[in-house]
Each structure stands twice: as structure tokens, then as C-alpha cells.
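Risk register update: the risk that structure generation would not scale has been downgraded. Supporting records follow, first protein first.
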Amino acid sequence: MRGMDKLQDVIELLKKYNQEHIIEFMNTLDEKEKENLENQILQIDFHQLLELYDNTKKKVEIKENKIEEIKYIDKQKMGNSKKEQLENLANDIIATGKYAVVTMAGGQGTRLEHTGPKGTFKLDVYGKGKYLFEILTDNLKEANKKYSVTIPWYIMTSEENHENTLDFLEKHNYFGYDKNYVMLFKQGELPLLTLDGKLMIGKNKLIKLASDGNGGTFASLRLSGALADMKERGIKWVFIGGVDNVLLKMVDPILLGFAIEKNVKIASKSIVKANPHEKVGVFCNMNGHPKVIEYSELPEKMAEEVDKDGELKYGESHIMCNLFTIDAIEEISKQPLIYHSAKKKIPYIDINGKEVIPNEPNAYKFEAFIFDAFTFFDDIAILRGKREEDFAPVKNKEGVDSPKTAKELYEKYWG
């Protein structure tokens, strides 16, 4: 596209979607900066952005009569012969190199007051400490030893932390993992919008973007070529988990065996809610499809409901411990997921190039959640695990889900 034509297209787009302040800002830029901004604007799906902004005005409604409790099996109550049977089913997949894992590691350690990617945070275990990436590597190396394979490991970074993550892993020699089996790929991004629907400018004189949530994993796998790489390797099942759960079992043969036995395309491990009002998303069936309802969207009456055994009807927490067939990932990657909006405090550059640091939330960030993909399927295999064995996240600097609680759980579990 010739320069003037391109500029004209950009100006028309910005006018059509009431973003004239960007035209004004462009007039303050030199040629190179202007070209970079024009190219970026032409990549933005303005129609989608407008829809996302309009959705922030709508209230989420959960119609209670369409929700039912979900079926699960409890790993603790399973007999040894059943466990062995499921392990044998999983064996055929893992030991023949048809299993891969994905780690979602796009975040920074901001809430932990850690500078750098979250995976580079060092947890103070056994006196000398271990990085979160190192803990995950240990977990995978153990599985490799058990099954005499090397499991392909795909790590999703973000635009913000990709280089730092790569440098860190290179510097630590991938903690002894064969780097021919490690592939980094970047998460997708979406523009941020002010509370009145305007695009924001960042310090780099471009539109401010933010990662599009863990639900963007599927499309990012496809667009980055990671999905094609999996297919080339003959992968059939893919585990997707976060970087910050130090008890995460990325290779759980019981979970995989259960999914195979149940003949489903998706599976997940849950743990029981600590209490009816714990702030976690819970599994249910909605309109005949598996779904996770955010704690903020679950009516109080339902949160407290118990079954005939006195257990919470909606007590299975989603702990980001998910398994998909490769076909399921491909299917999901081509469909748009629902986006959720969150109000955030976002620094930006004003029309005169001055940085503004807000005291109050001033912008909408749009994110898709991985569990919204569950609704594309008729059934899911849910294995109930145990908090002390499966869930020790490192999210907050202090208190619940902090390095202190994760250290205690980790050391207790590994002895």
C-alpha cells in the first residue's frame, strides 16, 4: 500500500470508530514513528473492539434453572486395581511419545513484587531455593525417567516477557532439559480501552496492548506454529497448566487414563472448595455443556447448596490443570471465545507525549479464559484431586497463595 493511501485508510478507520485523538497524536510523530503506528492500527480489529466495549455495559446473568452439578470421580476413593487400569491406558500414550505439555508463563511477578517473568521467581525451598521454571522442569524430568521418553514442552510467553524468559532459560541451560524438546511461543494481545472506549498510547508511541488472557492459548498455539510442531511429532494429548502452581502434575496418568476411558476430548483436575465462598471458579453443567462459573457470577444460594452426602453441589474448583486432545485444541483455536473485561490502572501517554499515572482504574483489559472453551464440548472427565497434593499456587506476596504457603505445601509433599 502506498504511503498516502495507507495514511488515508488509517484516518478513515480512526474516524469511523471515534478515535480522532489518535489522528491528533500522529501529527506529533516523526515519519518512522508514524509508519509504525499506522501499521499497528491496520492490524487492529476495530469491529471486535467495539463489541467488547459494548459488552462492558451488559450485566452477566446466570439463569439458575439451566445449571446442574457436574459428575466427577475422586482419586482418593479409587481402588488400586482401577488406578492400575487407568495408568495402563495412559501408558500407551505417554511412553510412545504422543503426549506434550504447555506451560502458560506470560505473566510478570508484579503481585509478588518480583521483577521479571513469573517463572523466574525463586521459591525459598530447602534453604537454597528453586525457580518456578526449575520446579516444573523437575516434574517433567521425573516423568521422562518413568516413561523413558522426552516429553515436548511448549512455553507460552508474552510480548512483554518473551526475551527475558528466553535469556533466563538459556542462562540456566533449561535446567538440564533437552532444548530440542522446548519451544517458546507468544501469547496474543488486544488493545486496552479507556472507560469511555478510547484507545490508549504507550511510552513506545504505539497503541497500548495487553495479553488476551489464558483463553488465547489455543489460537496462539495455532498461529505460532506450535500446534503444527505437535502434529509433526505425532502428539495426541496435550496438558495445559500455569507456571505458578508448585504442586502441578503435568503428567498425571490417572487423569489421562480417565479421559481415554470416558472417551472425551477434554479433562480437568479439580479440588474441593475450602468453603462455599472461596474465590474460585467452579465446574457445573450449563445447558448440557461443561462450564466453569466464576465465583463472582455464582448466585449465593447455589454456592451454599449441598447434596445428599452433605458435600457442596458446586464445590469442584478449577485449578488450571487441563488436558485436551490435539483435535480439541485445533477445534477451539478456530472459534472465538467469550471475552471478559476487567478494570485496571493503566499508565499512558497523553496527546502532548506526557506520561499519566492514574490513581483509579482507568481502562478495560479484555481477556478470554481457558475454561470458556469447555462449552464447545458435550462432556468432560473431571478427576477430583487433593489440595495438599495438587494445588500450591504462588500468586500473592503475603497471606493466601503466597510464597510462604507454597513453600510449606511443597516441602510437606516432597518431604
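Supporting record for the second protein:
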Amino acid sequence: MPFVSERYGGLHDVLRDAGPGTWGRALLQREHGLSDQSPHVSFLLKANNADRWGALAIGPSKNPSVSQLASPKLPQLDVLAAELLAMNQRLPPVDARLRRRLMATPSLGGARPKATVQDGDDFWLVKPVLPSDIHDVPLLEHAMAQWASAAGLRFAATGHDCVAQLKGTGISVLRSLRFDRKNGHRLMTVSGATMLQTQYPNASPADHLRWSYPRLANTLAKIGAPREDWLELFNRMVFNALIGNDDDHPRNHSAVYVPQEGAWRLAPAYDVVPELQFAPKRLSMMLSQGRFDISRENVLGDAMKFGFASQQQAQVHLDALLVRLADTFESIGSLLTDELRNLMKDRIEHNMKILGPVLLGHNRRPVT
């Protein structure tokens, strides 16, 4: 039976997942003269299968070609970072051959300049700091991933490097391990937007009402992900609320098929970065039905959807998680600049008071 696609100009959701994001679309516009009004399918077909997100191959024939992913190697990280910055600023190539290779693989999502670098069997997504960044965003994203991992959350492995020289200063670079590649194999992936049957970007008001952590947990249950993944999603919701990451839109959540388990699993967390220009009071995704605002009540409002047996169990879990996060924050203290450390410390202490219980007029322990 036919399935009608109501989003992305008639392009089915999983195909939109495999299409390039803002950065890749910008490269395709430069290379092929596409416009902002060009249909999504045009960008999908122009993007190369070699670096495409997930396991789908796209082409005009029944058996589209899948070229080997010829990513730059890790020792080339310095020139890769410099080339990405030059591309972002529309400057001449730093390395003409590398520029041609990057222009030929504009398949990745997201808005920031990025590319894939290979280290043995591992493939890392690389994102350099931009001249427009007020703070060192790659360093902050790395620190948040390290902190969350120390507290027991499941985040994509990250690395941070300061490479090359740009006007006398090093280029800060984030490396994030791609979870859709394993030992040279491509793994099937779907975005949270696909799982929630909603659109991102350019979401309508009706689409936005489907952006919901409890609904996403319910969908994970429907596709067979175990209860531990529902609880992990709850933990990530709390973490995003605590650090003020309001860029938690549905495409920043995913599920990946794990062949060894024969099951779909919640993918490791990625693109988790606090908003730095102001302290968000709400998230992009609902914490509970109809509620986007950051509060303890909203975090616990639909707790049963995440697999808790009772509200009391959810409260105990939340309190233990907040204590664990407070206790492990000091583990990333040496990673951050003084400015970033103070900014995040103030942010976290403020949100701890909002999310934590009030006992005898005093809130839970401060961040050390």
C-alpha cells in the first residue's frame, strides 16, 4: 500500500534523515547552483553516499553505488580544521585536494562546518571553533560529554584537540565518534524527528507540539528498545535542563540498529551544548505533556512514560541523578577556561535549585 509523505515536500522522513543538513546544503548550493527553494530530493540526490549518515544509499537506479569512505586520516586533523574554517569563510583552499574531497562529500547534518576523519576502524566527526563563536564551543561540547559520561550517561565518545595555527593561536577542534559506523560497517539509524513523525527544521506549530521526551520514550518502547534506554532518555532530558541546552530538537536524538543485539537502541547522545548568550528557561522538547519550561514538576510530570513504576521512584531517581551530576562536575574543572567554568557553575547551581527538592527551606548541595 502507498505511504504518503506529508513533510519535506513529499520526501519520506527516513530519506530526509539521509540528506545533508544546513552545512551540507550550503556546500551543495555552491557546487551545483541549488537554491534555498530547491526541493529536498535535489539535495538528497546530489549528496555522496560515501559519507552519508546511516546505512541508506541513494541513487536513480535500484542498486545505487556506494563508494568507500575515503576520509582524511587523523594525522591530517590540523589541515582539515584549517580547510573547514576556510570553507566556512569562503576563503581560497588551504589544501586544494582536500577541498575537492570535502566538496564531494557534503552529506552530514547540522549547521556547523564538519567533516569525518578516520583513525583505524573508527570514524570521528570533526567540528572546529568558528571566528564567530563567543566562547570555545568545541571545548565546551567535549567537556559536557565528559561530564555526562562521568555521571553515568551514555554519550558519544569525544576528543578535543588544539591544532595548527591560525593568526598565532591554535584551532580548537571537537572530535565526536560516529555511532553509525562500526568496524567499517554502516549501521541503520533514524532521527528523533522521524520517530516522532515531525519536521525539523522549519517546523509548523503542529509539528512542534510533537516534540516531546515522553512521546519519544514511548516510541522507543514501540520499536523494541529496552527500558534502560527510556531511563537514559529521562537522564538526558534532566541533563539538558540542568545545563540549559535548548538546542535539544528532535534531530539531536536518534536510534541506531545494533546487529549484535538484533534490536534498535537509543543512540549515544551528541550535539549537547549549553546556550551561552542567555540562560534558557525552557527546552525545545516537552518535558511532560504540553510543558516546555524547566522545572521539577515538569520533569516528573510524565515520569511513568520513562518506565518508572511510581512517582516516588522517579523522584528518588531524579534526586540521585542530580547528586551524581553535582559530585562529578569537578571532574571537568581542568578542561574549562575560568570564564566557562564560572559561567557553567552559576548556571548549574541555579538550575539545581529549580530541579532539586526543597528540604526545610534549603536546596540540595551546591556544585563544587
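Residues 311-328 form the longest helix (18 residues). On this basis the risk owner (M.S.) recommends closing the item.
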